[in-house]
Amino acid sequence: MSGKDSDLIRMAKQMGHPIPDKIKNKPVLNDDLIFYYQSFLDLDTTRTHNMSPTAISWLSIIEYARFYQLDDEETHDLIQIIRAMDQVNLKHVEKAFKDKK
Predict the structure, then answer these.
(1) Which residues, other chains included, contact 61 with Cβ-Cβ below 8 Å and sequence gap of 6+?
(2) What phi-psi label fits residue 70: left (phi over 0), alpha (psi between -120 and 50 degrees) or beta?
(3) What is the pTM of this model?
């Protein structure tokens, strides 16, 4: 649990409020998936959203896989997982762009 979550729990208890559902029912990331989550966060920094949202480039994913010395199967999995995560992320970013206008 992050320090921020701990602070919110403490404040809710002090004020006699229930622990917020977003914290109480927060999903726990399986240890096997932490690498992919961190990879997505790292790869997200390789792009810009200037005029419109842009996908994480295939080349960036490949370079990332090479840096971590992933084999062919691991690289394939990384590409598939990052692209799937990116599609969901881009939907949220596109909505935020539209809402801003």
Answers:
(1) 43, 78, 79, 82, 83
(2) beta
(3) 0.70
Q: Provide the residue ranges of all domains of the chain, joining segments of one domain with +.
A: 29-100
CA separation (Å) from 64 to 8, 21, 82, 93?
35, 35, 11, 23
Residue 39, both tokens:
């990879």
Query: What tens digit of pLDDT does each residue of 67-93 get?
Result: 999 999 999 999 999 999 999 999 988
CA distance 85 to 63: 18
Question: What Å distances lie between residue 53 and 2, 37, 44, 63, CA to CA?
Answer: 29, 20, 11, 21
